[in-house]
Design brief:
- With 230 residues, the chain is mostly helical.
- Helix content is 60%, strand content 0%.
- The protein has ten helices and no strands.
- The longest helix has 23 residues.
Amino acid sequence: MTTVRLRGLSSQEELAAAARSSLYRRLAEAFAFPTPGLVEAVASRRFLVELLSEGPNLPFDLVLEAEAQTALADAGLTHEGLQQEYIRLFEVGPGNPPCPLYEGSHRSGRLKIMEELVRFYEHFGLRPESGDQPDHLCAEMEFMHYLAFKEAAALSSGGPTAAFVLGQRDFLARHPCRWLPRLRRRLEGLQPPPFYRALTCVADEFAARDLMALKRRGAKPDSELGPLPD
């Protein structure tokens, strides 16, 4: 959603928002269909190093167990092998993929969920491209990247940030944090490769910790948002 890099950040709040934005972007890229660039970044350890480099600026601890670090820096990973596993887990299967990366596949009422997601995106000036599914995990991670980026930019320019903070808090609580634990549990039963097991664990735990941090900042739920099916 944005490739602009923030420069000249100085306060801890600015650095924290930028680090959170960067981590959400990396998660979005890693959950997309595997590219040679992703495999090279993992095999060379660059992916892991870049993840860990954001940790000191986060408003909470980024904990990666030794097993997860090994999986996210797998020197034996191949492009063809990762593509095959991605297709097996997330894209094909009798009727439906074994573990879809769509929120509406893990909760009831997919149409209502997608309608609310589109309203979230449009409220902040974004519109899904033709053919994109608003409830795909990549779209949701990209949206969090965008909101955290906008927060960092507003902080650096002295602008208002309340709408971006509230948007992140509401969005996480109503969407990623409602279904990432379910995605993680379903994936565990499918003998996933260590990379996707670790990546899903990181996404789930990072989103949960981020939501807790946003709640501590005092952002209140938007009273105009109605209940969603579970």
